[in-house]
From TrEMBL:
Keywords: Membrane, Transmembrane, Transmembrane helix. It comes from the Bacteria. The lineage of its organism: Bacteria, Pseudomonadati, Bacteroidota, Flavobacteriia, Flavobacteriales. It comes from Halpernia frigidisoli. This is Uncharacterized protein. The chain crosses the membrane at residues 89-110, 116-139, 160-178, 198-219.
Amino acid sequence: MISKIEENKIRDYLLDKKLPIDILLEVNDHFIIQIKTLEFEKDLSFDDAFKNVKENWRKDLTLSWAGGMDINDSNLLMRRISKNIVKDNIYFALKVTLFGMLFTILMSKFLPQNLFQYLICILVSAIFIYPLIIFIINFKKFNLTRKYDNYTLSLHQHNTALVLSLAVLPVNLIQQVLNHPENFNSFGNFKGFNLDFWNHAFPYLLLIVIFSLASLTIISQIKFLKQLEIVKPFLKYLKPS
């Protein structure tokens, strides 16, 4: 059995490695299982087993600067998980954006202009309002990232307010739709990369950005809230800012 004192040693060691708390909890479980296995199979003391397990994880948990724009140190484990999260979220955003753009183009081609204006304004507003509602309803939960800003509770927390910080984009697009709906309806009926092309392409490019940012925000919010339920029992071991 692992005693409370020994559990504290493992936890403090992993906290020093600056792991996001949700990842730390998973690694902590692996440490305990591996230490117990070594104690049983090789008849090692806790300290010797702990030393062996730390050495096995040394490459994955050693903090270093990865280069690039992020000046904070991280480790190989965090980078691998972060890379997978980014890949999954971008894939989700691409699917949503592709569907949203196809839906918008079909509406612009087959609906009366007035009806299209109303529907696209509702769609763009909903894209922005939905993550805002999630944020407001769960404000206390999202605010925990500020309360414990010395730690990263989850890698999913970084994009939970992405589209909300760029509210000017949906406002700008709605103005485009209301003032120049013809730019949507006549998209594709011109030739060459001239001024006319950019006048018609701009609202679509803006819509792509909004769909992408909103999708990334929503999926990050959902995943963060899910991970937070796992992290909550561990918060008692953290020091608020």
